[in-house]
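Exercise 7.
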Amino acid sequence: MRLTLRVWRQPDADTPGAMVTYGLDDISEDMSFLEMLDTLNEELILKGDEPVAFDHDCREGICGACGVVINGDAHGPERTTTCQLHMRHFSDGDTIDVEPWRAGAFPVVKDLVVDRSSFDRIIGAGGYITAPTGAAPEAHATPVPKPDADSAFEHAECIGCGACVAACPNGSAMLFTSAKVNHLNVLPQGAPERETRVLDMVATMDDEGFGGCTLAGECATACPKGIPLPSIAAMNKEWLRAIRKVAR
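Solution. The predicted structure, written as tokens, is:
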């Protein structure tokens, strides 16, 4: 395939960026999107130009580090991570725009790389459980109803890629935060911190500068792991429950 790429180039957070156009020939439809970017960088390096900086790690759809906006869609035209998107989803002669996540809480580091440490701080505010030291408890000592276990597993699939924030017109992190809250709050192991978890994580989310949620639904549509939109309602219910309990 022959492609025209328009890639966001920005040397650092303090320098204005711009879209730069590149042409690529002989791109195989079996390449992943990141392999295509690797090919672009190889050509740039041979020319003595600065390669495009982009984030990645596992390249197996597990870590979510690879996220970029492709033609206006977080992770591209398929509901998957960028590393698992293949060039067969594009056509010969296409023009492809590649941009970083756009959110005030995700400042650009360089080119397509953004700083998502705000997610780490949200998790650090309450994404943990009490773990007594000593002998491990017997595996079946704490029964968990299957609906609760299923819900916990569903929310635990969140990989923190940030696609929900990038897709949201308000730059909200509600879907991410709700996944982390609900994952633990439905389990008996998460009960000791149930109220403080949701209050602290939501407060940290707000402090990090994410936008408010208006239930546009774009977050759930873009999520590569299928975290459902009702997760936000479940977290709101947990938050109201915690506020009422603290107010007593």
